[in-house]
Amino acid sequence: MSDVTDATTGKVAPTPDDGLRIADSNEGGPVLAADGTPLKKSLSRTLRRQKMRALLLIAPLLIFVLVTFIVPIVSMLLRSVDNTIVPDTLPQTVSAISEWDPTASDLPDEPVYEALYYDLFLASEAKEHTKLGTRLNYEQTGLSSQFRSVGRDLDEIGEDQIDALEDLAEDTWDNETFWFDLMRGGETAENSDQDVLDRARARLRTLTGDSFTGGTGFLPGAEISALLPRTAYEYASFAVYTAIAEEDVVAEEEPWESVKIALIQELQAGADVASYSGFGAEQLVAAQEMLADQPQLNFKDSFLEIDEGWGNPRTWKTLSVYKSSYTSGYFLNAADYQLGFEGVEARPENQQIYITLFMRTLYMSLIITGSCILLGYPVAWILANLPLRTANVLMILVLLPFWTSLLVRTSAWKVLLQQQGVINEILVWLGFVDNANRLILMNNATGTIIAMTHILLPFMILPLYSVMKTIPPSYLRAAKSLGATNVTAFWRVYFPQSVPGIGAGSILVFILSIGYYITPEIVGGTDGVFISNRIAYHISSSLNWGLAAALGTILLVVVLVLYWCYDRIVGIDNVKLGG
Description:
Number of strands: 4
Strand content: under 5%
Low-confidence stretches: 1-9, 16-26
């Protein structure tokens, strides 16, 4: 900054330099930038811009991690407790069964069966009842086929009453146009009940997950909705599904049997149709008079005729136990427990497999990690101490398995380890093993440990090698010059410096091995499979994704706990990959 002498006072005053202006000392003002803003504010704005640019640079990576890592984990956590399919598919049944005591030996009352009929009719039209049956079949075998059979035969319930209604007057109760005009209150109806249609939309949206926001060309009449609320609601559900899901014209489609059953029930229950003067009043009065001589529909007996399973109290107890939107049942099953009718209880002894699989997975992963350390440490030491050209050639051999398919490597071990395989043939030829007593190295834990040690060995060698390359050879020479033997120099000088490589390799190998499922599946048999094999089975075969998510969540928690213990004992800061 240059100095300028004031002509009047003779004092030397500072002048602006490099874009800054300093306020008069007598005023005590802040330092200003060239544009007149305070320097502190200008610097803060500049730093904020730099941070935004840095954030934009790493944004693609953050989005990638969010989409491929965070979102799947959150989805898995939610799926492990999600049970919304039951209350979403059977909302009226869940509400009705809440008043039933699941510890009782009697079956639920007629209103529960009635609610089940209306819930299942809509679910069967939307093809959602089979998904519900599959979900409940995880808790009670046979429910899947039970829901399928009732979905096929629901339209036979109340068949006699429907036939009597349709035979009452020609071209009336089997006429789609008549039903359309009746439910909207006539052709010139002005008053409508939007709430009924909105509830029908919400019902379909909850069941199928679709928005159902399009137009239906139908509005329930306010008067008919007040007179026949159940019929109007069922017809509105039919209208929404017909117009939006099937893209048909409501007025040209005959309503579902559930709509006609709802009308029959309300007329037999004494709906005050005599006071109704809107469209179809005469037909409603005639129908009510005719139905007075018809027997009341018994939903309970109808369900028992379709499938005797609906007369089994265990079916209803299962529904009662799993009626909530969220459940701990998946986690209990993953720990060899289950939600019983009176609370948490242990699963039958012959079904308790998951704790055994978890313990086997951890135990064998530790053995595989230890084997990799024992085999990988000498190899890494040799690579780190050989001349560079020779070490590079050997490093290619270490990396060679990465260029071969995992499935090919595992299948090769299957050929090598079987009783008529290469290893047994060599041992018999050398006389170490009798031909009648060949070693059993396949379909057991031994085969899994051997194959996985070979596959994961490079993941141990590479971190060890990168750390060992950073250890100066002069340290060993100095120790020996001070009188240490080769063993002492190695153990007290070299080995402690290589521990970070052991830690890095152990974490890699252990975490990879704990989640392997292809190799144990091929060579492990029944005694060498991991918990990951069971997770893969539930995802691809049994489709019990909730239980698979619970098993995966438990495995994730176990790994995090072990990682925390490792950090407390060894220290994650001591883990290095070289440098």
